């Protein structure tokens, strides 16, 4: 069962703070949508509005085509996994999982069967008679997920379900959740502040800030073509580098001036940037899209190495270019010393340009 | 608002109002009784509101033999109790809150058990003992037994209060040069003060209201409740009503001041961890 | 454990013991000693010989059985009533409606009212020419005042005591339950909502089970104190209704026999311990599983 979710001009205020600003959102049936953003951006509030745990001040919420705006959570066809799991401590695992079905007055043998099935799916069928206090955090989390899935909801809502787990377990559970979604296929809305989780799990990611969606796109798009400086700086480890630049033209060639140096621009953009000569822009480039040369010759951007962090699979350099500080990812074999001046070559195809004032990505067509 | 919600809301308000009336009306009655002129107290049927308010009953009560004295005695005893209780109980609360020492759980268990001692079990033998020690019929004697009765509460409450003050703050103070005591006095104590004030008022109320031990341990230096109890068979109705009113007055006042802390305190009292 | 760690945790210093000393001394003098003396007084005659005489006299006294009966009935009538009332009040207030804090403070008022004062308050209501009779008369329900408090109507007198004590002490249970309710994380309640447990179902399946520790505390505390009911009875009903604590008082005060008074006190202690043990046995296993 997978339903479409539609939010129409949904607004939610807490006192003077507008947590969700007139949001329009469409979640396709069966889609895994991630609401991503820093704390306070309104992602959890949005989730709770879909759940019915918050009453919207303005706007409508539709699930599976039905207007559920006035309905309580239990009547919306949703199931929810809380950040704290909220697994009832006074009931066994089996009783917890079956609770929702009990509230629906389902026949006992049906409940038993459904509980067994979903427990097997989540590999907790051995734990059905235990109490939550006897389980580990990871096991309790699975109970929370099982309890939601057994309801065969039209929509599954998850509020930072992995944030209380240790790093290793988080990695494991991420893969499991992805597999689960493939198997069960319920429309899922997933809230997190961890952009790696978002990139890994989402069919689409909604990057939120201060109650608004900055960008709603597939992970690759959000990573590769951020809609604005905020998204670029939020997604990716390390975040996107930003340099101040100016569009200039010389000898018929359009290029970007970064301080005293010039950065080559893609052929296709020559035309498009013609009309913007003299404009101040922000140049965005990711750490892995910067090539390191031992010396700044041949048109490479001179950069002074500040710090070098060996991270195993790659070496992360912090370098200074003029007044800007960049992170550059390079091979661990390369030996650089702090204070050394190296040369940077930016991969042309991966340069992203943003308006200096608004931070919005420059659109070219 | 939808119909079922409105219904639920209305029922809710009716419920709480009913309970509120249940609590307030008897207090209202005793208040009224205390301001009713003496002759009307025996009137039949008694009007809910007297024909006129008069300080007659109160004046008569206050002027009755021994009342003013007993009032003063009650105040003294309560103040002494509160001083003793905090002096003895607060350090213990601090110790339990901050240190993990051997015997900590045993001590906490012991405190909980003492809460269950019947007052009679303490008062009767102490009456005999106090005679030997010359503490019988003294205010200090009563204060001491009140302290004993209030001590379990005080320890449990102050433990909760000090647990609420993060240990980091005192440790930071110590790294900045304070001695352990200095850190306590400058950091923990000021932060704990509101809670301690509430605990103090609560102790005052406990002592002020206590009747069994106060009666058994005194003859001439009675506290107000002891005085009222011992004269209860012989005193006229209006005397008893005015007495009741005076007994509840300071308590109600204090309850108002410490209302914010009531639930923190009892929350701490029931959380046995 | 490493020495530095021990010092940090405070297990390596004597300071806590010094801080604890005054309390321990106090408990020793004012709890353990009287306990010991009470037992001595109850079991030892003036000449020093061990005797059960005092207990025999206590049991033989005609008021003993009455006192035991009434004390017991008082406890088992009042405590469940209080638990239910306090639970209702706590749940209502817990919904957090506008003004709930105000009502909560109101409900907690009786905390500051001593049992003696409570007795006197309800005296003004139940007495012959009291408010209750006056109201009933004015409404035309009765023609002559009902003697709520008299030898003839001992049932009514008992009822009056139950009402007064219930009124006074429900606030104590209320405060314990409210504190317990506040400790239930909101997440559990929301999860229950999402799973379809609303209103009464939520209370029955989720809130009440999680409130069990508080209910148990309240039950034990209230029962122990209910067995000691004293001043309410005296103020309201004089000596018409004997109660165990009251008998202890009379024997010490009026009849000047501390031995028998102590016998009563020890007897009270024994039943208190007995009931506590009984409750704990009965309700223990569930508690442990929930606490984890």
List key phrases describing it.
heterotrimer; A: about 375 residues; alpha+beta; Rossmann fold; OB fold (Dihydrolipoamide Acetyltransferase, E2P); six-stranded mixed β-sheet; five-stranded antiparallel β-sheet; 9 helices; 20 strands; about 25% helix; elongated; B: about 270 residues; mainly alpha; MetI-like fold; 2 domains; about 0% strand; disordered C terminus
Kindly estimate the percentage of residues of chain B that lie in beta strands according to DSSP. Answer: under 5%
The CATH architecture of the largest domain in chain B can be named as Orthogonal Bundle
CATH second-level architecture of chain C: Orthogonal Bundle
Largest interface: B-C, 95 and 99 residues
Number of domains of chain C: 1
Order of helices and strands of chain B: HHHHHHHHHHHHH
Q: How many E strands of chain B?
A: 0
3D shape of chain C: globular
As an assembly, this protein is: heterotrimer
Query: At the first level of CATH, what is the class of chain C?
Result: Mainly Alpha
First-to-last CA distance of chain B? 43 Å
**Silhouette of chain B:** globular
- Biggest sheet record of chain B: none
Class of secondary structure makeup of chain C? mainly alpha
Q: Low-confidence parts of chain B, pLDDT < 50 over ≥5 residues?
A: 267-273
Instruction: Report the CATH topology name of chain C.
Output: MetI-like fold
CATH homology superfamily name of chain C: MetI-like
